[in-house]
Specification:
This protein is α+β, with helices and mostly antiparallel strands. Helix content is about 45%, strand content about 20%. The chain has a five-stranded antiparallel beta sheet, with helices on both faces. Helix 9 packs antiparallel against helix 10. The radius of gyration is 41 Å and the shape is rod-shaped.
């Protein structure tokens, strides 16, 4: 091989190693010098397995023998076989990944071409790690956003939907019914505890809060899963029900809700009797506007309050 040929091999951007049939190194190009810190003169005439001990393994030694015997080229993928030559570009605890193309040349030499993919593999791994990190951060952001949305739409004490959630849902359902010209009906129940202030004054707000939490449970148990109960503020609650056929159905539901307060509230060995008053407005009879429906249910509620409490009434123009 002439010097011009060696100069060309030295300019290539991948490793070139030439062995004789005794597997001794007779050429080691500049790329291999830069990657391994082995100078050409240092490895010259050394057996390849002295520089790359992996070739001592029977599996890889036999590959070289077969290339010499039958001239069949072999390709060793770094993803499968790892690395053969230590690289100065990577840390000691990092596995190298090198593709090797081994073939016979001129029936006298073995040509080994080396491509190092360790750096690319590390970049890919870092990118994957970065992507996983981003996905984790995005998950946390989504969870925080969901938590913030839940907190914005739900009452902190009882966990029930709040006024914002309830009014949004009521408006949405009314818009859908009006747009579709649906014959569906909606009943809005405005509920207020009659004597919670007395409990707060006598026992403190801790007792009042316990009653509010228990009341939220009883109200949820009194309605269907398709209905909505929300806490508006203080001791004011509201329920939205769809599909009730006539006022007799609504009356039965109202009596069932009031029955939830027949059983005393037991707070720290104190048995407290608390009643409720309730006003009811109907869509479409009373109004087709969400705020107006709530306001008319509130008017019916205060009619009950002013006439003795512990009962219910429909809005009456």
């Amino acid at each position: 091989m002439n010097n011009f040929f060696f100069e060309v091999l030295n300019k290539l951007n991948n490793g070139i190693i030439i062995l004789d049939y005794q597997k001794r190194i007779i050429f080691w190009n500049h790329w291999m010098e830069m990657k391994t810190e082995y100078k050409s003169e240092t490895v010259f005439n050394y057996s390849i397995d002295e520089v790359a001990p992996k070739f001592l393994r029977p599996k890889y030694s036999k590959i070289l023998d077969l290339v010499i015997e039958n001239g069949q080229p072999r390709f060793l993928a770094g993803a499968v076989h790892g690395g053969f030559f230590s690289s100065i570009d990577v840390e000691h605890d990092t596995n190298t990944l090198q593709n090797l193309q081994i073939e016979r040349v001129d029936n006298n030499f073995i040509l080994i071409q080396v491509e190092d993919h360790t750096g690319l593999y590390q970049k890919v791994q870092k990118m994957k790690h970065f992507i996983r990190h981003l996905e984790k951060e995005n998950d946390e952001i989504r969870q925080n956003e969901e938590l913030s949305r839940q907190m914005a739409m739900h009452d902190v004490l009882t966990g029930l939907p709040n006024r914002l959630f309830f009014m949004g849902k009521l408006r949405k359902r009314l818009e859908e019914f009006i747009l579709d010209q649906s014959k569906q009906s909606i009943a809005v129940f405005f509920i207020d505890l009659d004597n919670l202030k007395d409990v707060n004054d006598q026992f403190g707000h801790r007792y009042g809060d316990s009653i509010l939490m228990e009341m939220s449970k009883r109200l949820k148990n009194a309605i269907r899963s398709s209905d909505t109960v929300a806490r508006l503020s203080g001791d004011e609650f509201v329920i939205m029900m769809e599909g009730l056929i006539d006022k007799k159905d609504i009356q039965r539901v109202s009596e069932h809700i009031i029955d939830q307060f027949a059983k005393p509230f037991v707070i720290e060995d104190h048995s407290l009797s608390v009643t409720c008053s309730m006003g009811i407005s109907l869509y479409p009879e009373d109004s087709k506007d969400a705020d107006d429906l709530l306001d008319k249910a509130d008017q019916a509620l205060y009619r009950v309050k002013n006439s003795g409490k512990a009962g219910y009434a429909f809005f009456n123009q």
